Amino acid sequence: MISQRIKILLELNSAGRNSLLSELSMKGISAATLDAMKLVPREYFISEDLYNHAYDDMALPIDDNQTISQPLTVALMTDLLEIKPGDKVLEVGTGSGYQAIILSYLGAVVYSIERIENLQNSAKTAFEDFGINVISFLGDGSAGLPEFAPFERIIVTAGSPHTPLELKEQLDIGGIMVIPVGDKNYQTMTKIIKTGKNKFKVTEHDSFRFVPLIGNSAWDI
Questions:
Q1: What does the alpha-carbon distance between residue 72 and residue 113 come to, in Å, rounded to a whole number?
Q2: Nearest-CA neighbor of 55 among 67, 45, 43, 73?
């Protein structure tokens, strides 16, 4: 069950949340993703002085110089993953926990890895408050979680200079990975479908700006 705080936040600016979801619907986001997002008040993840911007379609700062992604970005990545109930999903970059919660509400079994301990701890509290079970790890997300592979879906919520080989190897055949790839300023949202042991179908979807993916198989600190 969700906590009392979340119940209060869901009522705080429901009109603003519904307006944002209407905008996202007009941009082609699926009803399933929008229904999940409707259950997750963005205020929970940001400081109170930013509440007036909770439903602006923009990234907002959280702790440790990180951000909670733009709602359109979260929605697009979610749609690109084509989540089915029961899908085993690896999330690289837990951040605030917002994306993982939406995936869980869609029925995914989420394994999430975060390199910043403070963010991991905050996200674990969020998972408890939202009444979901995300399997959380602290470590180098670019290396994935080989001991729990394969995954039907992999989502990377930070910009990478390339698609880490380790993550491609941990993707199940028939599985989908969504990852922003590019330089540290702008990345192209990339969807990768694993069609065989070493075969992949790659499509690109718009440009975005993410915090960098830090790790042995991504950017250096």
A1: 22
A2: 43
Task: Give CA–CA dist 167/154, Å, rounded.
Answer: 8
Determine the distance from the C-alpha atom of residue 127 to the mean position of all C-alpha atoms in its chain, rounded to a whole number: 14
Nearest to 192 by CA among 180, 181, 171, 177: 177
State the pTM of this model.
0.96
Q: How far apart are CA 119 and CA 35, in angstroms?
A: 26
Q: Which two tokens stand for residue 110?
A: 């989420």
Per-residue buried b or exposed e for 118-132, using 16+ beta carbons within 10 Å of the residue's own CB:
ebbebbbebbebbeb
Q: What are the tens digits of pLDDT across the range 38-75?
A: 999 999 999 999 999 999 999 999 998 889 999 999 99
Whether 69 is catalytic is yes
Instruction: Give the residues across from 87 on adjacent strands.
Output: none
Q: Which of 69, 104, 142, 217 is catalytic?
A: 69
Distance CA 172, CA 151 (A): 5
> Residue 1 in contact with residue 7, Cβ under 8 Å?
no
**Cβ atoms of 125 and 2 closer than 8 Å:** no
